[in-house]
Amino acid sequence: MVPIPAYIITDHKKSAFLLSSPGITNLTSTHVAQQHFEYILHLADNALILGQRNAEWCGHGPVLEQDIAITNISLDLIGQARMLFQHAAEIYNAMDDAGKASVEKLLPRTWKTYGRELQEDDLAFLRDERQYRNLLLTELPKGDWAQTILRQFFFSAFQYAQYEALQQSGDSTLAAIAEKSLKEVTYHRRWSAEWVVRLGDGTEESRRRIEGALQELWPFTGEAFKAAGFEDGDFAPDPARFRAAWDERVAAVFAEATLAVPATGTWSQEGGKRGIHTEYMGYLLAEMQTLQRSYPNVTW
Amino acid sequence: MLSEDAIWTLLADVKDPEIPVLSVLDMGIIRAVSVTGDAVEIVITPTYSGCPAMDVIAMDIRLKLIERGIRKVQIRHQLSPAWTTDWMSEAGREKLRAFGIAPPNPKQQFCSTDMFVEEAVQCPRCGSWNTELISQFASTACKSMYRCRDCKEAFDHFKCH
């Protein structure tokens, strides 16, 4: 059996995924390291990109209280992204040469010219579009309030189930980040669910808007549950197992909102986890990265 | 000779930059203090992942110790177990109330994740329980916004976390 890299198991009590997995013997430690790094980037990118999208509401919310609410959620998500990027950078800096070479394609080119260790901001702000691993759902335009709300609800309901499971991850740092974030995600899920109910069971206009949002967003919900190459079970739980909890939550909230749950087809929009993004992603990155690209290695 | 007690005493003077009536001890974010020779290690835990005060707090702790000539200071972040408002001191809760912010309710009493369930929160100004939630999110990540139906004042509530 190939030895498991020491950085993955640091807490044996929490190593359920690793120890229960028979697949681990077929993997090289370099392959595990690569999947591990990419998975953490995926989690970080989801939080970062949705945090960036929600921040577009700053100063533009429909009423002051909700402007503050959506930007608070944005702040939580960016905080989560920071913890995850810090973790990813630490993992990378501790890798051996083979490990580092295996994740070469995910690293920002600009950083390579800096000649120093990898840091959280390099990962957040200097990668190219194809190097991001976020769900397509998170990068879609903020749209109107209904679209923002419904996207947040779909995402938070998924993130809740995912982070709940990650608390048992064999990576104890990741487990701690999940435990911490879950408390915030609980607020996000509740707040967005209440708004889905208000809009669905509200006025004719709010109903029209949320139904429009549902039509737009539903095809993007399936991607979350289809395991990417880096989600094959050793420390990253298979997302398919979150489907039932997510379906149940959506059904309960939609019933309250008097909305019909669309049929779950076999086809869904996907690609984000492989780095194939929608046409909206480039514009988002251009705005988000402009400072770091214009002033390389900038410090405050 | 440095003692751990002396460090705890110094930390009582480091305030939360966003709620300056509370010290970092009142907030319950100091997890451990250890002294080895002339080196000090302090373990802190964030309240919320994105709380912008955390970096400032770490810097303020460092500055406070430097004032006393303590230069070898290491500040470590620890996430688990996650911070909870149950760690906030009794004195801290009273200071919040006096400052006009309704303190968090004990978690075991009320901390619902259900939709449209409102926590009973006492108005920090007039003491009335006849209050209503305006928004689950307020001026900082750790607070929600309420309104008193009796004295009509809007106020912040340090939410149960």
Automatic annotation (TrEMBL), chain A:
Pfam families: PaaA_PaaC. InterPro entries: Aromatic_CoA_ox/epox (IPR052703), Ferritin-like (IPR012347), Ferritin-like_SF (IPR009078), PaaA_PaaC (IPR007814), PaaC (IPR011882). SUPFAM superfamilies: Ferritin-like. GO terms for biological process: phenylacetate catabolic process. GO terms for cellular component: cytosol. PANTHER family: 1,2-PHENYLACETYL-COA EPOXIDASE, SUBUNIT C, PHENYLACETIC ACID DEGRADATION PROTEIN PAA. This is Phenylacetate-CoA oxygenase subunit PaaI. It comes from Flaviaesturariibacter flavus.
UniProtKB/TrEMBL annotation, chain B:
Residues 4-65 form the MIP18 family-like domain. It comes from Flaviaesturariibacter flavus. It comes from the Bacteria. It holds the Pfam family Zn_ribbon_PaaD. This is Phenylacetate-CoA oxygenase subunit PaaJ. Residues 114-159 form the PaaD zinc beta ribbon domain. InterPro entries: Fe-S_Maturation_MIP18 (IPR052339), FSCA_dom_sf (IPR034904), MIP18-like (IPR002744), PaaD-like (IPR011883), Zn_ribbon_PaaD (IPR056572). PANTHER family: 1,2-PHENYLACETYL-COA EPOXIDASE, SUBUNIT D-RELATED, FE-S PROTEIN MATURATION AUXILIARY FACTOR YITW.
